[in-house]
Amino acid sequence: MAVFLFVCSQLLLLALPILTIETKHASYMTYVITRDYFVAFKAPEYSIYNTSEKHLYYRIESKYDFQHNIKLVMYPSKKIVAKLRSQKQGKEFKAKISICNITSNQWSYGTIIQHRQWLHANYSIEWNEYHLSMITNIVSGTTRILDQSENDVLAQFYRRWFSLNYKYQLEVFSDRIPESLYLLGLAVVSRSDNG
Predict the structure, then answer these.
(1) Dihedral, CA atoms, 186, 109, 93, 36, nearest 10 degrees?
(2) What span is annotated as the signal peptide, if there is one (predicted)?
(3) Domains along the chain?
(4) Local confidence pLDDT in tens for the 195 residues of the chain
(5) Contact status, residue 193 vs residue 166, Cβ threshold 8 Å
(6) Cα 81 versus chain centre, distance
(7) Rounded to whole angstroms, what are the CA distances from 42 to 12, 33, 65, 67, 91?
(8) What is the C-alpha separation between 111 and 95, in angstroms, rounded?
(9) CB 86 within 8 A of CB 62
(10) 67 vs 20, 74, 83, 100, 122, CA distance in Å?
């Protein structure tokens, strides 16, 4: 029993640096994301709502495929504003992303790459000359998306554990990056959740 308590205390000490990253400002936009039930042989699909869950802003949709290939559709226009296509790279996850600038209708491209760590999942995102980190703390279950150049939290999301279905909350703190990138990040991190 003493060994177990010692190991647990050491794990907590290792997790503290990850837990101490705090947000510097209140969120300016909050979304509730609901994962669809019964998705087999394709990537999970999601509906993205406002906090009252009455206004649908986006859908994350996929096709029947063994790869993780998704598109982000804006509502009510049903315009595709982002895409993600995974690539097999050993046991690590790697995907190419495409984000549409809604005002100019121009697409920009980037990558999301997973780097496995012991107490947290870490992803690097390269997009439009931005270098971002997406870090999931296993203890708290919170994923934070940080700008590596400024070590600033741009957004964070977490799963609502006490809901009957898979529900997530996304808090956006900065408009420097399109929110579609944060939603693709959520789809990548939550792809392995059982459901």
Answers:
(1) 30
(2) 1-26
(3) 2-192 (3.20.90)
(4) 555 544 444 444 344 344 434 444 566 799 999 998 766 667 889 999 999 999 999 999 988 766 778 999 999 999 999 999 988 666 778 999 999 998 999 999 999 999 877 767 799 999 999 999 999 887 788 999 999 888 899 999 998 877 667 899 999 999 999 999 999 999 998 876 644
(5) yes
(6) 16
(7) 36, 18, 5, 7, 18
(8) 6
(9) no
(10) 35, 23, 13, 22, 20
Residue listed under structure tokens 């590596």: 148
Contacts of 170 (CB under 8 A, 6+ apart): 30, 31, 32, 33, 48, 155, 156, 157, 179, 182, 183, 186
To which residue do tokens 């920009």 refer? Answer: 108
Contacts of 157 (CB under 8 A, 6+ apart): 33, 142, 143, 168, 169, 170, 171, 182, 185, 186, 189
In angstroms, how far is CA 5 from the centroid of its own chain? 32
Q: Say which residue the tokens 């203890």 belong to.
A: 139
What is the CB-side half-sphere exposure of residue 22 using CA atoms within 13 A?
4
